[in-house]
Write a structure and sequence with these properties.
Layout: E1 5-11, H1 17-20, E2 21-27, E3 35-44, H2 47-54, E4 71-79, E5 90-94, E6 106-109, E7 113-115, H3 124-127, H4 129-142, E8 150-153, H5 159-170, E9 174-179, H6 182-190, E10 195-198, H7 204-211, E11 217-222, H8 226-234, E12 236-244, H9 261-267, E13 270-273, E14 278-279, H10 281-291, E15 296-297, H11 298-314, E16 321-326, H12 330-338, E17 345-349
Parallel strand pairs: 8-9, 8-11, 9-10, 11-12, 12-13, 14-15, 16-17
Antiparallel strand pairs: 1-2, 3-4, 3-6, 3-17, 4-5, 5-7
Helix pairs in contact: 4-5, 4-11
């Protein structure tokens, strides 16, 4: 491998990760204006990566061959025009078009690239970015969560769910959390959840109503989707805030009308979308005009990042890392994640 190429996991077709991914050499990327090239030291796995590999619906489709990887942690080794201030910095970043991170060098928009202090060591340095930003965007920016309120967090042993449990607890809320096994329940209790519900053993909505005097919770943090939606509406209080940010249970219905307006009306709740995406103002305007989507500003991302980094440094929250693997073992690790055999985040180290 010379300076002109880098190793990358690449798929030429859709399918199971261990069957379609190949470790190949690709040209070393070059940053454009407002972009940086990051040399990853670690790569956390995301469901978005699985959808790109296996063929699930994604917001921004790209043509094969693809290099998956929407999130990286590493060092900036090259900068495009306007991004020079990040040169040489230790950073976390989301990748261009949410692809390319499973490589030894990757292009990332400067607007979604943020510095990480040396005080946060690996693997935590690679694991906190997406989960805690998403939790903050939902619980703070959308729900305006207050101390003393109640929150229902789904998939609480996962990356973003575990972050939401900790952030809500830090903010003084009472946290009710759902998990898929007794093993995961023990982990989530240790994170500070007040009530942990094994959804495979009991109806979570009935437990929530019993724990809230029949009223329901003030906030629902739903990164699961169809499998929990109807029951979660029942578990939401009058004037409650329902945060939707994921469809882990069935992405195929993500764009289908499973959210029935009449049910929302009858529930007397506030339904809020939460999208983890930062962009400069010119890109935000283009995306709004073309797609109708609302991205958060780069400045908002930077402000959230400062808050999250401070909490991690203080030990008030910590990313939940289930396992670390070698870069060469990424496909097998992704299949374990797809099968639901992981807890928290899986991080590949380079």
């Amino acid at each position: 491998m010379g300076d002109e190429t880098v190793r990358a996991w690449q798929a030429a077709e859709f399918g199971p990760p261990t069957e379609v991914l190949r470790l190949v050499e690709v040209p070393r990327p070059v940053p454009g204006p407002g972009e940086v090239v990051v040399r990853p030291q670690a790569v956390p796995l995301n469901l978005n990566d699985l959808e790109r590999i296996a063929g699930g619906p994604v917001m921004v489709p790209v043509e094969h061959p693809i290099v998956p990887g929407m999130e990286v942690m590493g060092v900036v080794e090259a900068c495009g025009e306007g991004a020079e201030g990040l040169a040489g910095r230790r950073v976390v970043a989301t990748t261009k078009q949410a692809c390319g991170g499973w490589a030894e060098a990757v292009v990332c928009p400067a607007a979604s690239t943020f510095p990480v202090p040396d005080s946060i060591a690996l693997p935590d340095a690679a694991a906190f970015y997406f989960p805690f930003h998403l939790a903050w965007l939902g619980l703070v920016d959308r729900a305006h969560l207050q101390a003393g309120e109640t929150v229902l967090v789904h998939a609480a042993a996962g990356g973003s769910g575990s972050a939401a449990v900790q952030l809500a607890t830090h903010l003084g809320a009472r946290v009710l959390a759902t998990v898929g096994s007794a093993e995961k329940a023990a982990v989530v209790r240790d994170l500070g959840a007040d009530v942990v519900i094994d959804r495979t053993a009991e109806a979570f909505e009935e437990v929530v109503l019993a724990e809230t005097g029949g009223e329901g919770v003030d906030v629902v943090f739903d990164n699961v989707g169809e499998a929990v939606f109807e029951a979660s509406l029942k578990a939401t209080a009058y004037d409650g805030r329902y945060l939707m940010m994921g469809f882990a249970s069935n992405k195929a219905v993500a764009d289908e009308p499973f959210v029935v307006p009449r049910r929302v009306i009858l529930s007397n709740i506030k339904l809020a979308g939460v999208l983890f995406a930062y962009a400069p103002d010119d890109v935000r305007s283009l995306v709004k005009q073309a797609m109708g989507w609302n991205f958060a500003s780069a400045e908002r991302g930077a402000a959230i990042h400062r808050e999250v980094v401070a909490l991690v440094e203080q030990g008030a929250v910590r990313p939940l890392v289930g396992e670390t693997v070698a870069f060469e073992d990424l496909p097998a690790a992704m299949e374990r994640m797809a099968a639901g055999r992981t807890i928290g985040r899986t991080v590949a180290l380079l």
